Description:
Distance between the termini: 33 Å
Structural class: alpha/beta
Largest sheet: 6 strands, mixed
Radius of gyration: 19 Å
Mean pLDDT: 95
Amino acid sequence: MHVRADFAAIVGHTPLLRLRRASAATGCEILGKAEWMNPGGSIKDRTALGLLLDAERKGLVQPGTTLVEGTAGNTGIGLALVGASRGYSSIIVAPNSQSAEKLDALRLTGAEVRLVPPAKFADPNHYVHVSERLVAALNAKAPGSAWFANQFDNTANRDYHAATTAVEIWEQTDGAVDGFVCSAGTGGTLAGVADGLKARKPDVRIALSDPAGSALANFVNHGELKAEGNSISEGIGSSRVTANFKDAKIDTAYSIPDTESVPLLHALLLEEGLCLGGSSGVNIAGAIRLAHELGPGHVVVTILADAGTRYAKKLFNPLFLRSQGLPVPAWLERAFPAGVSAPPVA
Length: 346
């Protein structure tokens, strides 16, 4: 029998998918790592598993430990699910500005969910700081009873992507990968994959695809944390350099406006049957830009991080799109006539 033992055993080993429209537009092979196929629905299952395995190896958690994390959603979902499969309970602190679909998915994991107002990282009420204080308070009452996953600055995140995601990409392309591009929230995926690929092929081109409103693209290209514009994307972009992002082997960066990324998602659903989240649109836009820079005949890989069903009331809602000045494709207008708010995509 071919049987997997548990949740952890079905994290990763996701397929590479040829993105037909993007490939035809560039003359390159643009391939997306289908990370929405992880059991918790996103690439953050890898992050959660890598952080927890590292903590177990170091003896930082034991039966009865409560896992605590500050997260925009997907890492919390992954951590709560992999934690439950290994006998841990979880408390997740998240900003209340995240999509209703993602927050519902988080609650369905059985974790205790604590919502806080969105705040800048410098604000002590930022969700990461709130979660860190919560761990300190729990451990003050019962030493060792809580563990802070700390996805942004715990470099086990980056290391796990170097050891798994990068290796899978290398093997699935038979070493033919010429470029890799994705967005950064914690920076773990981009930095880890960059480490893993450049160790095998030093001239592989690594690019950051950054949503408008994030300061990271300007930091990579000009050395200054400076942000312009804004984006409806969730869970990506940053105003600071995390420990995972620090010294990442990135060659260039692109700032991607919503007017470039969101239409790609709409076309992808209509023409290729893929319903993907906002970060995937930003990633595909970056992959197209990198492919144009490299020229025809190259292989460019990016990340398809999660499904669009977690953002349907934004990404596929004509009313919301128009409120943000974003184009609404004709097929979406027909599906949801003016004045009707789109329900989640089935």
